[in-house]
Amino acid sequence: MIDPINIAEKLATFEDAFNPRILAECNGHEVRAAKLRGPFVWHAHADDDELFLVVDGAMLMKLREDPADPEAVRTLVVREGEFILIPRGVEHLPSSHPPESTCSVLIFEPAGVVNTGTATGTADATNLTRDALERI
């Protein structure tokens, strides 16, 4: 059955941060809802682009666009109603803005992409990695 999906209602079903839920699938991609509270973990997705759409609040996105220079970090603020596309291979660190706040986002990426990307298995990512996502 085809029905509209109310994003606010779906986001209201959970409070935990950094635990994306699948809202829908489209052409092999997932539409995921997540809440950010503070910084996530530095990571990249070697083979997949990732799109973040801010639904509520604001997100700080740090980018390492030059792998040869890990100290060169670009910082962007993405506000409610805006989105940012992170190209495959770009190391990034999403965070709520300000860090003590909560930001709600939709994430569009290929089905099965692990949320911590290249950081999977590192000490910082161990408690943040979600191998199997809940569908809501």
Structural commentary:
The protein is 4% helix and 41% strand. It is globular. A six-stranded mixed beta sheet has the order 6-3-8-2-1-9. The chain has a three-stranded antiparallel beta sheet with strand order 5-4-7, with no helix packed on it. It is built from one helix and nine strands; from the N terminus they run H-E-E-E-E-E-E-E-E-E. The chain has a single domain (22-117), classed as Jelly Rolls. The chain is mostly beta strands and 136 residues long. Strand 1 and strand 2 form a beta hairpin.
The global form is globular
Distance between the termini: 15 Å
Mean pLDDT: 95
User: Do you know the CATH architecture?
Assistant: Sandwich
Helix content: under 10%
Count up the helices.
Answer: 1
Instruction: Please name the CATH topology.
Output: Jelly Rolls
Radius of gyration: 14 Å
Identify low-pLDDT runs.
Answer: none
- Kindly report the spatial arrangement of strands forming the biggest sheet: 6-3-8-2-1-9
Task: Please indicate the percent range of residues in DSSP E strands (runs of 2 or more).
Answer: 35-45%
- Which class in CATH terms? Mainly Beta
Order of helices and strands: HEEEEEEEEE
Q: Output the structural class.
A: mainly beta
Number of domains: 1
Number of strands: 9
Query: What is the CATH superfamily?
Result: Jelly Rolls
Question: Biggest sheet, in brief?
Answer: 6 strands, mixed
